[in-house]
Amino acid sequence: MMMMVRKSKGLGERHQRILDFIASYQREHKHPPSIREIGEHCDISSTSVVNYYLDQLEKNGHIERDRKISRGMRLTGNTPLGDMLRVPVLGVIQAGEPIPVPSNADFQSFTPEDSVEIATSLMPGREKGKELFALQVQGDSMIDAMINDGDIVILKPTQDARNGEMVAVWLSDRNETTLKYYYKEKDGYRLQPANPTMKPIMLKKTEALEIKGKVVMVIRKVDRYN
Amino acid sequence: MMMMVRKSKGLGERHQRILDFIASYQREHKHPPSIREIGEHCDISSTSVVNYYLDQLEKNGHIERDRKISRGMRLTGNTPLGDMLRVPVLGVIQAGEPIPVPSNADFQSFTPEDSVEIATSLMPGREKGKELFALQVQGDSMIDAMINDGDIVILKPTQDARNGEMVAVWLSDRNETTLKYYYKEKDGYRLQPANPTMKPIMLKKTEALEIKGKVVMVIRKVDRYN
DNA sequence: CTTGACACAGAACAGGCGTTCGAGTATCAT
DNA sequence: ATGATACTCGAACGCCTGTTCTGTGTCAAG
């Protein structure tokens, strides 16, 4: 009798299949499946086997279970549920330092502690793609961008910008990272602070200007004084 | 035998209570309650009565039900689902106008268009209660609070504040609404702008100062230039 | 070869849970 | 009065569902 064997390591095919089924079932029915439903759709004839896998998935931290409670399971962590977007917080942004740029690895594994959740309904435009990342502002150096110490800036990585977009740029001539509205003009670039009372930075075409990303959203949690 | 009667229209006290319980239970347990659990916590001794109310709530569109399925109910529309919080946007806030204050009615019925969704994981402290509201900033008058035109401020209604909290105040002497950090001092109040380069407003005790709410979060959607 | 872990099946148990039914009470318009 | 409507209760029915127990086949280590 044939038997697909998967000793030892990581997620087996069946684990993945169960995980996927829970996710798709949840999306479709708005509630988790029962053990028997999982069995049917994953070609597992016995409820005890499903329970067997569910236990493992729980131990591995992929799901949580409320024992004794019907359909009391849910996906945890990295799996995006519902209308949320999980954006990794890659580090801090401050005037004197280049900002961290995201690598593909960053989007693979990041813990819930290092990420922020955004409701997709809040996301402007069609930035709902997953290639977003976040940085926490350190210091008061971004006040001319109306951004405070501790604020969270959500960025979309890009090398070029259209006029009027707020971008994160690295000015190698000045050794400075800054957030400004970007305008390309005849003789160079104009970087306009968000604060209307402040004057823009004018750059000649010869000066280096590296666009690192485009600002999509700024979030300020005012909990530092509770 | 006394009997609270609620003929005809709208949500009765029990409807509301059930709705609230479902929401709080869901937040705590990550899954909906059973009919019997609702009964226990809402002082309803018979499952059929709970079912009776659930049917009505479904007809009124406040919940959805998957019949025959354990805990197969969920809140719809205005009620926050899962880890989201739906905050009503009651209006705009600008320097020359008093801010709209929330009434109970505002928390009952508001359309998804007039509200913003916040992931509870983003919410600071224990402001996860439902009595939050949001205002959209109009004009540049709040730049000294590091808040831009179009930003969304999320407030918790309150009349008094602790030192260091950012509050929305109405200065009737000056006919002005402003957002500042609040400090009570010996001879009066100090209202400190968030922008550290700006000077505070000093108020004598005699001057009127109406605290309208406490700032919990600021959200800036940078989509005006897409 | 024996042993033990691992993967799986099937059946049975027990409690959870939605549903339904019968019956009772209070308010109100007719 | 009378019936209609709204609301409540208690109990029973029966499926749903998680849990547990027994047994079987595979495979690698000793």
Task: Note down, in words, how this protein is organized.
Two copies of one chain form a homodimer. With 226 residues, chain A is of the alpha+beta class. Chain A has two domains: 13-75, Winged helix-like DNA-binding domain superfamily/Winged helix DNA-binding domain (Arc Repressor Mutant, subunit A); 84-219, Umud Fragment, subunit A (Ribbon), CATH 2.10.109. Helix content of chain A is 19%, strand content 31%. In chain A, the strands form two sheets. Chain A has a nine-stranded mixed β-sheet with strand order 4-3-5-6-11-7-8-9-10, with no helix packed on it. The first copy, chain A, has a two-stranded antiparallel sheet with strand order 1-2. In chain A, strand 8 (176-185) and strand 9 (188-192) form a beta hairpin. In chain A, helix 2 (35-41) packs across helix 3 (47-59). Mean pLDDT of chain A is 76; it is low at 1-9, 78-82 and 104-113. Chains A and B meet through strand 4 and strand 11 of A and strand 4 and strand 11 of B.
Brief account:
2 copies of one chain form a homodimer. The first copy, chain A, is α+β, with helices and mostly antiparallel strands.
Secondary-structure map with pairings?
Two copies of one chain form a homodimer.
Chain A (H helix, E strand, L loop, with lengths): L12 H17 L5 H7 L5 H13 L3 E3 L7 E3 L8 E10 L10 H5 L6 E5 L13 E5 L14 E6 L8 E6 L4 E10 L2 E5 L8 E4 L5 E12 L5
Parallel strand pairs in A: 3-5
Antiparallel strand pairs in A: 1-2, 3-4, 5-6, 6-11, 7-8, 7-11, 8-9, 9-10
Helix pairs in contact in A: 2-3
The structure holds a DNA duplex (30 and 30 nucleotides).
